[in-house]
Amino acid sequence: MTAESLNCPNCGAGVASDSTQCEFCKTRLKTMACPSCLGLMFIGTQFCGHCGAKTVQASSEVTENLGDCPRCRVPLERLQIGTVTLRECQRCNGMWSDVETFEHLCQTREEQSAVLGFVGDRNLKVEPKSTISYVPCPDCKQLMNRSNFARASGIIIDTCKKHGAWFDANELPAIVEFILKGGMEIAREKEKIELRDERDRLRDEQNRQAAFERRFGSKNAFLDGDQAGILSFVRKLFD
User: Fold this and answer.
1) Burial class (CB within 10 angstroms; exposed 0-12, middle 13-18, buried 19+) of 175
2) Which DSSP symbol is given to 162?
3) What would the mean pLDDT of 38-51 be, rounded to a whole number?
4) 112 FRET partner, CA 20 to 30 A, in 153, 161, 173, 214?
5) Would you state the pLDDT for residue 71?
6) Predicted TM-score (pTM) above 0.70
7) What average pLDDT score do residues 169-187 get?
8) H or E element at residue 202
9) CA angle, 150 then 70 then 146, to 5°
10) 8-state DSSP, 121
11) Going by C-beta distance under 8 Å and a sequence separation of 6 or more, which residues neighbour residue 152?
């Protein structure tokens, strides 16, 4: 991404968009995207320099007792984007969300746009993981489960059933984009198909069971392991 000239939100001096600190007032700088036009700006800027829209403010600050990054083991910082409160690792750019916040984010289009505008424009370079690893929950320190979000997105996230979800760099914007593109509807349709197929499979199994009992009687319903194995082989002959 080509660097462009932006204004420091503290002193107004012109600063390159890829700068991390204003050379004039030494303010720490971090870019975000305007939720309206996705134009680049610094966090703290009141109005977008591209379209003039009032910005959704995002702030990041160190707060005690937020737990450590599951990957880097460094303290997490609170990240506020509009009404969404997350925790962020400044080293690896991973993010933590509690259960309630993540559910709210998945259901609210305005929050999705704000988060995508802030997080999605950073174009982070992430090194591919060479091995699969399970990481601890920042709150309870128990190893989290790994799951494919919505079972259809291809985005593997780490979840603690009690406390929330951990997103490695770029995973949260990828999930938001998946939702905005109708991914949840696709996932629901896939789930319906799987449920219908499972019902069909159970019905077919029940029909085969009934047909077998009509032919051989029901007295063989309860058999030991060896007999059950033989019975299974016999049933296959008549399937």
Assistant:
1) buried
2) T
3) 77
4) 161
5) 93
6) no
7) 86
8) helix 183-216
9) 25
10) G
11) 183, 186, 187, 190
